[in-house]
Amino acid sequence: MGMAVRNIGIELNPPEKECTDTKCAWHGKIKIRGKLVEGIVVSVRAQKTAIIEVEYAHYLPKYERYERRRSKFYAYLPPCISVKEGDKVIIGETRKLSKTKSFVVLQKVG
């Protein structure tokens, strides 16, 4: 067996594949702190980047109802996790990795 999988302090299953990426939460040095978000992958066209869309309900007091809203998060995609468009994933917040990326893909759900 190659590299050991780090304990990232979150109850998630580590990926089966291994990588030598320093920005990987499981095999590198990146620490996860802040939000954990579950969403659907919209795009994986950019290199080592996944765009995740999250739907949530926002309350409107005037009408006493909820409306559906969406947010997009840019997340770093390590090579040990393989996802495609339409997959449900869990991403974790970390330090800024680039101008737009401050999340890392942690696990593919289902």
Task: Explain this structure.
The protein contains no helices and 5 strands. It has one domain (1-110): OB fold (Dihydrolipoamide Acetyltransferase, E2P) (Beta Barrel). It has a 5-stranded mixed β-barrel with strand order 1-2-3-5-4. The chain has strands spanning 36-43, 49-60, 65-76, 88-93, 103-109. By secondary structure, the protein is mainly β. A hairpin with a 5-residue loop joins strand 1 (36-43) and strand 2. 0% of the residues lie in helices and 41% in strands.
Query: Total helix count?
Result: 0
Largest pleated sheet? 5 strands, mixed, barrel
Neighbour order of strands in the largest sheet: 1-2-3-5-4
| Average pLDDT reading | 91
What is the class in the CATH system?
A: Mainly Beta
Derived from helix and strand composition plus strand pairing, the structural class reads mainly beta
Spatial gap, N to C terminus? 26 Å
Q: How many structural domains can be distinguished in the coordinates?
A: 1
| Radius of gyration, CA atoms, in whole angstroms | 15 Å
Shape: elongated
> Under CATH, the topology is which?
OB fold (Dihydrolipoamide Acetyltransferase, E2P)
Q: What is the strand content?
A: 35-45%
CATH architecture: Beta Barrel
**Uncertain regions spanning at least 5 consecutive residues:** none
Total DSSP E strands: 5
Distinctive features:
elongated; 5 strands; five-stranded mixed β-barrel; 110 residues; mainly beta
Secondary-structure map:
Layout: E1 36-43, E2 49-60, E3 65-76, E4 88-93, E5 103-109
Parallel strand pairs: 3-5
Antiparallel strand pairs: 1-2, 1-4, 2-3, 4-5
